[in-house]
Structure formats: structure tokens, C-alpha cells
UniProtKB/TrEMBL annotation, chains A, B:
PROSITE patterns: HTH_TETR_2 (PS50977). Residues 32-51 bind DNA. It holds the Pfam family TetR_C_33. This is HTH tetR-type domain-containing protein. Residues 9-69 form the HTH tetR-type domain.
Length: 194, 194
DNA sequence: CGCTCAACTAGACATTGACTATTTTATAGA
DNA sequence: TCTATAAAATAGTCAATGTCTAGTTGAGCG
């Protein structure tokens, strides 16, 4: 294993890591396969062994994003005992993720999503079912009714997504995003928001 | 004025119209300045007289989007007398716009927004103040309190944006989007959602 | 009638994504 | 241990794109 083995051995993962970084610092449009290869030190054709397309790499990024966001939300929710606190922590995890990975979130929820691979759909489903679990816990906690859970889950997801979009676009500051999540949860719990 | 005058005379507008169409049918990534020029029948350098950059054209598209969405919402809100109905119509206008212009909405709220021109910020502000007006009308209608309006406006905007993202991404059907807007409004008005 | 300047053309260039043929190397099986 | 095989990477090519520059056209104004 010299300093530059022919087989990189880990190229797929390194490509994704480097792409995630580029996404965070330069945006999607400026993300170039050739530049990634250059930075990593492989030939410009090397990425093709792992991603047939530029789109395939972006899909893989989105997939990792869904899984990372889901696990961040779960960790947030699990970090609190009291339900309202738990819900709040999950929501804040969403916004935190959006702040740290704004362009990635755009990619995950891009309207131009023709032919998403099954693995991407599965990852998205993982996120959605995580949120669903968090809401379901509210039934056991006695703050939500079973019958309304499905629609509340969708509404909560959409609300967090919208807040994240606003924060990611700089329309509201991160602190304002947390505030909005608080307000939303208060509304969901039927409490006055001020 | 022959069939092909040297000066197009209307190129800027035609470019934007054609770009809007391309956005709707092919997505942002596939939108090419040269292809637009080809379709319109001008040289590949012609667009540069009106848009210094590809990004400048996209910014102009987003600007038109903000104004169009704002006026659609206002028209929707004004089409009803009863406040809850008015609010609902405004929300539905948002979702309708998102369904018809998913990629454009992405563009309008893209996270990668470095150095947005003043006119774009102004257009975005027009949308936001339109939504603010719609919420403010709820105070006069006696369903909202003045003190909570600012935060409710933000929350309502974020919710509609989130719902639109879900609809645009195909995560929920358009009809489901309307349902979500209904649910959100019910929640805002303090009514049970089922 | 001629000036001027914005609008357009035409040509050039570097960069990119994608494709192909070829080379290297890890590994599994005899 | 040797060898077949296929995965992983290289290098070269191609069309397309965004951007830049120099030159051309013509509409409107004094």
C-alpha cells in the first residue's frame, strides 16, 4: 500500500464526504465531479465507477441526508422525558440540520425528482416514519388523539420543512427558527403562543 | 420590420417566458441559456445584453415568481367575504402556484442565495407583506389578536411553504396539500382539525 | 442627415459531464 | 501458489455550456 495505491479503496465514501463539503460551501450548481476528483487526487473518470451520473451522486447525498436528519431527530426526541420537550427537541434538530446543511436540504426536497432510486425513497420514508413515531409518542403521552395523528404528522413535517426553508434562505435567523418551532408546537398542543 | 429584425425588441421578456416554460418542463439544471437563445432564434450571446449571468436570469425569474405568487394570493383572499374562507383561498392559491411552478418555487426559496439583487429582495418582501395583510385582516375579523400577528404570519408562511414543498416534491398529492392547508388554518383558528 | 449607443452577432476559450478503450490490482478458485 | 476474472481506476475524446471580447447593425435623437 504505497502512498498512492491504484485502488483508492474508499472512494465512494470519500467522494460523498467531499461532495457534502462542497455542497455546504459552494452550493449545488458549483459542485463539479471533476473538481471533486481533483481534490481527492483521482482521475476525472474515477467517480464513474461509483456513480454513473452526477445526479446519482446527488441522489446518494440526499439519501445520506435523510438518514442523518432522521437520526438527529430521533436523538433529539430521545434526549427528553417530558413529551412537549421531546417534541421541541426533535423540531430543533430539524432546524439545526437545515442551518448546517441548507443546500443539502434543498436537494432532499427538490421538486425536480424524476425517477428517484428506491434507496432514496426508502431513506425519505425513514425520516417520515421517525417523525411519525415522535408524534405517536404524543398519543401515549395523552396530548394527541390517535385519530388525528396522521394529519398532524404531515402538518408537523411540513411546518418544520417550511421553517427550515426560511432559515436556510436567511429569511429568518436560526434563533427565529427555534422560536417558530416553539410557536408551532404550542399551537399543536392547543396552547396560546404568546 | 422584416420577419427577423436585428433588434428583437422584446427579448428580455421573451427570454423570461421561455425560461419559465423550460423551468416547468425540464428543471433548473437543464435550463440552458444557449438553448433558450436557439429556441427564440437569436444568437447565443444575445441574452447577455439583458442578463449578465445565468444567475441573473434565474434571479429575474424568481422575482417574477414572488410577484405572481403575491398577486395570486391577494386575488384568492379578496375572492371571499368570510375571513376563514378568505384565509383558506389565500393558502390554496399558494399551493396551486407550487403545483404549477414547483421548480420556480425552489428557485425562489433556494438556500444558495448569495448577493440577491435589491429588486429580488423587494419582490420577496411584497409576497411577505401580502401574507401579512391577509393575517392582519384576521385581527379586524376578530379571530386573531394583534399581538400574535407577526409570529402567526411567519408561522403561516412557513407552513404554506412546507406544504408546497411536499406537494411539489410529490410527497403528497395536490388534494392532500389543500387538506393540509385546511388543517393548518383550523389549527390557527383554534378549532379541532377533524 | 449623421451620431451615438444599446442590442445583437460571431468567434474563441476553459470547463464540464459523459462515453470508451485500456491498464492495474484485488481476490477467489483450482 | 498460480491464474482467471472482474472491479476499480486511468487517459483520451467529444459535444455542450457559460462567459468573454471584438465587431456589426440599426433605432432614435439632436
Amino acid at each position: 500500500m504505497s502512498q498512492r495505491p491504484f485502488h483508492h479503496g474508499n472512494l465512494r465514501t470519500v467522494l460523498l464526504d467531499q461532495a457534502e463539503l462542497a455542497l455546504r460551501t459552494k452550493g449545488v450548481e458549483e459542485l463539479s465531479l471533476r473538481e471533486l476528483a481533483r481534490e481527492i487526487g483521482v482521475s476525472h473518470g474515477a467517480p464513474r465507477s461509483h456513480f454513473i451520473d452526477r445526479k446519482a451522486l446527488l441522489d446518494a447525498l440526499a439519501e445520506r441526508g435523510f438518514l442523518a436528519l432522521a437520526s438527529a431527530m430521533r436523538a433529539g426526541a430521545d434526549s427528553r422525558i417530558e413529551y412537549a420537550e421531546s417534541l421541541r427537541a426533535a423540531g430543533q434538530a430539524y432546524v439545526d440540520f437545515a442551518v448546517a446543511n441548507a443546500a443539502l436540504l434543498d436537494l432532499m426536497f427538490a421538486a425536480t425528482m424524476d425517477r428517484p432510486p428506491a434507496s432514496l425513497l426508502a431513506a425519505a420514508e425513514t425520516l417520515f416514519s421517525t417523525i411519525s413515531d415522535v408524534m405517536q409518542a404524543g398519543v401515549e403521552a395523552g396530548v394527541f388523539r390517535e385519530a388525528e395523528i396522521e394529519r398532524l404528522t404531515l402538518l408537523m413535517s411540513a411546518t418544520m420543512q417550511g421553517v427550515s426553508t426560511f432559515v436556510g434562505a436567511g429569511r429568518v435567523l436560526p434563533a427565529g427558527g427555534d422560536q417558530l418551532i416553539d410557536d408551532a408546537i404550542a399551537l399543536f398542543l392547543g396552547r396560546p403562543i404568546e
